[in-house]
Design goal:
Blueprint lengths: L3 E2 L14 H8 L14 E2 L3 E8 L20 H8 L5 E4 L2 E5 L9 E3 L4 E5 L13 H13 L16 E7 L3 E6 L5 H7 L9 H4 L15 H15 L18 E6 L5 E5 L13 E7 L2 H10 L4 E3 L12 E6 L3 E7 L7 H4 L2 H9 L3 H7 L23 H4 L7 H10 L2 E2 L7 E2 L20 E7 L3 H15 L4 E7 L2 H4 L14 E3 L5 E2 L9 H4 L13 H12 L3 H14 L3 E3 L5 E6 L2 E2 L16 E3 L1
Parallel strand pairs: 3-12, 18-19, 18-20
Antiparallel strand pairs: 1-21, 2-25, 4-5, 6-7, 7-9, 8-9, 10-11, 11-12, 13-23, 14-23, 15-20, 15-21, 15-22, 16-17, 24-25
Helix pairs in contact: 3-6, 9-12, 16-17
């Protein structure tokens, strides 16, 4: 499955009102239970209810999707229950390959890492048909012909880096690559993109059409995708459409409401190592965190989340656990914005702005200590050895006085509490920089997600800190920041945005757990929202794709930490989960943000 942006579950932190024991457990992904050491007995069957994030309901079922649908609700909470990715990542609290839950054996690299052979395990689709190498080829062909429709596409990466595909028998597929690649990167960030699809049921161009081999031509693959995408937009048919009844995951849909409520039952032909214990799983949408919390308090939810404003209130019958992700949090700067772009293109501006982000202060004030500072593109936690020493040192610690000096030294009239203006236009070392006109103000619009109290608190502190150095942030909360903050051309109306914040968990490394950033920061990447472009950075990213070891990875992240294509901010937990003590198997929570409800069981 492709890499995705922040997945809009409630990103809330534990308050200091929790007991010290509960806080310590939550911080490491454990749980505080009101049941103490009481022993429980597992019960077969039963129904569990799971809360979808506020104002982020399920709305897309086809795994091959455009950016506006690529969120955690659609992918980890929905599609993965029905359609398993070729390789599964996340084991305990570590973002590593999980071979037991993968559809294929560990890939084998040969010919100086220019060839990779994949052998499928004996899985079956829910209609009894075997999952074959043709299903993998079907996915590859659809992506090849519909690159622009796939949110994870990066020019030169998957599927561009595959020169040919060879099928052997029904369970072996060999990919011939365009060059030698780093096996770790290719497995974790390329093969991880593949979701086998049921070619025997989906390779058609209309509802009444016959299944063929249309995907074998570019024209046919485009027609197939067009049909499947149109069906995916018909939410009312999700539970009845014959297409979506053919699954290889542990669950099938038994009911679906266009509001986003999904009811799952076990897929009796699921071939995975753990069969579902529950007889039914219901995922429920909510318009707000407060409405979700009302359901939680009433006891009608089995697995939900605690809004920031309600942390510390008694919640009998529930365990509380902080859900930490393998993630970073950034502020995107729109380099293509006609007004702000030339300003953001100046490194000293970005350095001054980073100096004004008080990460430790925000962690204390907005997140009550339950967040992690980030200074570069590789998460500091969980500990993996992949974050470089330079990044971990915090290259630009918070300092208002330093920020003021930087701006004054580069031709700006600094007005603390007001708005700075450029008084020395030009390209000299003490001038404002190329493209920055005289009188240009340091005033920027700033979009961030609404409905998250802790997010609003952080942004208000940030606005105040920036103002101390004369940078005015005109902040505005929006319910759909994901759609508003995207890559754009300077001439487009959509390019009006200047600074965009996806939230305190902006981007997580899902099925791309080797954090090289190609899909986020490389020139032309689908999720390079700010349109940052650097040939040096592109080369460093490419080196992580082709060379093994941490040296190329460290070089890439040091460039990112030093040059600030984006601004770094604290990473809060994905959510503070509230899990009924009667539900077993839900902990620990995956750093890849996947859920495995086939592991869940009710207990008494």
């Amino acid at each position: 499955m492709p890499l995705c942006r922040a997945r809009h579950r409630s990103r809330l932190a534990l308050a200091s009102t929790l007991t010290a024991a509960a806080l310590a457990l939550a911080a490491c992904g454990g749980a505080a239970s009101s049941s103490g050491s009481k022993q429980h007995k597992a019960v077969a069957g039963g129904t569990a209810t799971f809360a979808e994030p506020p104002a982020s309901p399920i709305n897309y079922i086809l795994p091959l999707m455009p950016p506006q649908y690529a969120n955690n609700t659609n992918i980890s909470d929905f599609q993965f229950l029905l359609y398993r990715p070729l390789y599964w990542f996340g084991k305990g609290t570590q973002p590593v390959l999980n071979t037991s839950l993968s559809l294929a054996d560990t890939p084998v690299y040969t010919h100086h890492d220019t060839t990779v052979t994949i052998t499928l395990k004996p899985y079956r689709w829910s209609d009894g048909k075997p999952l074959t190498n043709r299903d993998v080829q079907f996915w590859i062909n659809l992506v090849k012909a519909n690159r622009s429709a796939w949110f994870a596409y990066v020019p030169g990466a998957f599927p561009d880096d595959i020169s040919s595909v060879k099928l052997s028998g029904t369970r072996t597929i060999t990919l011939h690559l365009t060059r030698s690649f780093n096996p770790k990167w290719f497995t974790h960030n390329q093969l991880s993109q593949i979701t086998p699809l049921p070619q025997h049921a989906w390779d058609k161009t209309s509802a009444g059409g016959k299944v063929g081999n249309y995907d074998m031509s570019s024209t046919g693959a485009k027609a197939v995708y067009k049909f499947l995408a149109s069906q995916s937009k018909d939410l009312s048919s999700y539970a009845s459409n014959p297409l979506w009844k053919v699954v290889d995951g542990p669950f099938q849909l038994s009911a679906f409401d266009p509001s986003g409520e999904a009811t799952f039952v076990p897929n009796r032909r699921y071939s995975g190592p753990v069969k579902p214990h529950l007889s039914k799983l219901v995922e429920e949408p909510f318009t707000s965190a407060s409405s979700e919390y009302n359901s939680l308090r009433s006891g009608s939810l089995t697995y939900g989340y605690v809004p920031f404003t309600d942390i510390g209130r008694p919640l009998p019958g529930y365990r509380v656990a902080s859900w930490r992700a393998w993630a970073i949090a950034v502020l995107f700067l729109n380099y293509h914005n006609p007004t702000a772009g030339p300003v953001f293109s100046q490194l000293y501006i970005r350095q001054a702005m980073q100096r004004l982000i008080d990460q430790k202060g925000y962690i204390s004030a907005a997140f009550h200590g339950d967040a992690t500072p980030e200074y570069g593109p590789v998460p500091i936690k969980p500990l993996t050895g992949l974050a470089s020493p330079y990044e971990r040192r915090d290259p630009y610690p918070f300092s208002v006085s330093t920020a003021r000096k930087i701006l004054a030294a580069h031709g700006w009239k600094v007005v603390a509490g007001g708005t700075d203006t450029c008084v020395r236009p030009g390209t000299g070392p003490s001038d404002c920089g190329a493209g920055v006109k005289a009188g240009t103000p340091l005033r920027f619009s700033f979009l961030y997600p609404s409905g998250q109290p802790e997010e609003n608190t952080e942004i208000q502190f940030m606005k105040s800190d920036f103002a101390k150095a004369g940078i005015t942030l005109e902040v505005s909360a929006t319910p759909d920041v994901l759609s508003a903050v995207q890559a754009c051309k300077p001439s487009q109306t959509a390019c009006k945005w200047q600074i965009g914040d996806y939230g305190s968990l902006s981007w997580f490394y899902g099925n791309d757990s080797y954090p090289t950033g190609g899909q986020l920061f490389k020139t032309g990447a689908a999720f390079n929202a700010g349109s940052y472009s650097s040939s040096q950075l592109d080369a460093l990213i490419q080196s992580t794709h082709t060379s093994s070891g941490t040296k190329p990875l460290y070089a890439y992240e040091d460039f990112m930490a030093r040059n600030l294509p984006v601004l770094w901010q604290p990473v809060a937990p994905q959510q503070v989960s509230a899990i009924k003590t009667s539900l077993g198997g839900a902990l620990p929570q995956s750093p890849i943000l996947n859920i495995n409800p086939e592991d869940w069981y009710l207990q008494r």
